[in-house]
Write a structure and sequence with these properties.
Order of helices and strands: EEEEEHEEHEEEEEEEEEEEEE
Distance between the termini: 44 Å
Helix content: under 10%
Strand content: over 45%
Radius of gyration: 20 Å
Structural class: mainly beta
Largest sheet: 16 strands, antiparallel, barrel
Shape: globular
C-alpha cells in the first residue's frame, strides 16, 4: 500500500462537451416518450497500422482495434427511465470494441454496455442505490469517443475497467462534493471469477461549474483460473475535468496500481503498473478543433500487458494529433495520427521483425441521437 499514495495531478477540459460523470454514457440529444429517453450512437472507423499486423488485430488496444478495414467500433441503443424514486438504464452494444473488450464474458452478457436499475434512498437528498452493469468511474476517458477531445483512447482507460458489475451507492455532501461506494464482482467482469467481492470508492468535487476533481480507489482479490498467482489488487487514480467556453482546453490522467502475487511455492511479490497522459485542444471555430496527446504507460511486470515480442514487461510512450470537425449537433468527423515509441522492442513491423515503434492513421465518423 505504500506505493498507492495519490501523487498525480490531472487537468482536464473538453472542447465541445466533456462527460460530467465518466462512469455513464451520455447523449446530447434523445427522444423522450413520457419518462423514457431513447438514444443511440454509431461509431464507424477506418484505421491503418503502418506495422501492418498479419491478423489485422492491432496489438495493445481494445478500442478501434482493427487494421486496414472499415468497421464499427461501437454501436449502441440507450434506453433510460427515471422518476422521483426509480431509475433504470439499458445500453446494448455491438462492434469491434465489444468483441475485444468483452471476449471473456458469457453469452449475451457480452453485448451489454450498461444494464442497471436504481432506487432513491431519501426523499430530501439525492441519494441513490444502483445495481447491475455500471459504467466505470476510473480515468477521465470512457469507450464513448464523442465525449472526448480525441478519437482514440489513451492507454489509461484501455487497461482499467470500462465497466463494473455490482452495487453503487451515491450521496451528496453539501453542494460541491458527491461520494460513491461500490461493491463489485471484480475488475471489469460481469460474471464473478472468484468468491471474494471487491470494493471501490469515488469522490467528486465540483468547486465551480467548470471544474470537476475526481479521486477513485479499488481493492479486490484478483485470483482466478487464468491468473492463479494473483492476490489482492490495489488501484487509485485522480483527475480534474475543466469545461470552458474558451478556445483552449486540456486534459490529463495518471494512476498507479499494485498487484500482490503468491506463486505455487508460496513466494510473495508485488507488481506495480502506472501511467500518465496529457491532452490539449484548440478550438479554431465552433466546428473545428485540433487536439494532441502525449502519454507514457509502464507495466514492467505485465500485470495487464504481455508483449507480443520476446521482451519481458511492457512500457511505451505515445504522441498523437487529432483533427475534429463537428457536423451540426450530432456528428463528428475525425482524422488522427498516432505514434508509439519504446526504448525496448515492443512492436512487430511489416517484415515480422521486432521494433521500437508503431504508428497509426485513423479516421472516424460518429453520429448520435
Amino acid at each position: 500500500m505504500k506505493y498507492l499514495v495519490p501523487v498525480f495531478l490531472m487537468i482536464n477540459g473538453h472542447l465541445f462537451s466533456q462527460v460530467a460523470n465518466t462512469g455513464m454514457t451520455a447523449n446530447y440529444d434523445s427522444l423522450e416518450v413520457g419518462k423514457i429517453k431513447i438514444g443511440g450512437l454509431v461509431d464507424a472507423y477506418y484505421g491503418f497500422d503502418f506495422n501492418q499486423p498479419e491478423t489485422s488485430d492491432r496489438p495493445y488496444c481494445v478500442s478501434s482495434s482493427r487494421h486496414n478495414e472499415i468497421n464499427i467500433n461501437l454501436a449502441y441503443v440507450e434506453l433510460q427511465y427515471i422518476n422521483k424514486r426509480v431509475r433504470g438504464r439499458l445500453v446494448p452494444g455491438f462492434g469491434t470494441y465489444v468483441n475485444a473488450n468483452y471476449a471473456n464474458e458469457k453469452g449475451s452478457l457480452k453485448n451489454l454496455i450498461e444494464a442497471n436499475v436504481g432506487v432513491r434512498l431519501s426523499k430530501k437528498r439525492d441519494m441513490w442505490l444502483d445495481a447491475g452493469i455500471l459504467g466505470s468511474p476510473f480515468t477521465n476517458e470512457t469507450a464513448i469517443s464523442k465525449d472526448h477531445l480525441m478519437y482514440t483512447r489513451s492507454f489509461a482507460p484501455e487497461y482499467v475497467p470500462y465497466y463494473l458489475t455490482g452495487v453503487k451507492v451515491s450521496a451528496p455532501i453539501g453542494n460541491k462534493i458527491k461520494v460513491y461506494g461500490y461493491i463489485l464482482n471484480g475488475w471489469q467482469v460481469i460474471s464473478d471469477v472468484n468468491n471474494p467481492l471487491s470494493v471501490g470508492t469515488q469522490i467528486e468535487y465540483r468547486p465551480s461549474k467548470t471544474v470537476l476533481i475526481n479521486w477513485d480507489t479499488y481493492v479486490g482479490d484478483e485470483s482466478s483460473k487464468l491468473t492463479p498467482d494473483n492476490r489482492t489488487r490495489y488501484f487509485t487514480d485522480v483527475y480534474l475535468i475543466y469545461n470552458s467556453t474558451k478556445k483552449f482546453s486540456m486534459t490529463s490522467c495518471a494512476y498507479i496500481g499494485a498487484q500482490d502475487k503468491k506463486d505455487s511455492l508460496g513466494i510473495k511479490s508485488q507488481a506495480i503498473w502506472w501511467q500518465a497522459n496529457v491532452i490539449a485542444a484548440y478550438q479554431f471555430t465552433k466546428a473545428i478543433s485540433l487536439a494532441g496527446r502525449v502519454e507514457y504507460y509502464n507495466d514492467l511486470k505485465s500485470v495487464h500487458v504481455i508483449p507480443i515480442t520476446s521482451v519481458k514487461g511492457f512500457d511505451t510512450y505515445s504522441a498523437g494529433l487529432c483533427f475534429n470537425l463537428k457536423v451540426g449537433d450530432n456528428a463528428f468527423f475525425r482524422l488522427e495520427g498516432k505514434y508509439f515509441y519504446s526504448d525496448r522492442k515492443m512492436f512487430i513491423d511489416q517484415n515480422n521483425q521486432e521494433t521500437n515503434w508503431s504508428s497509426l492513421l485513423i479516421t472516424n465518423l460518429t453520429v448520435w441521437f
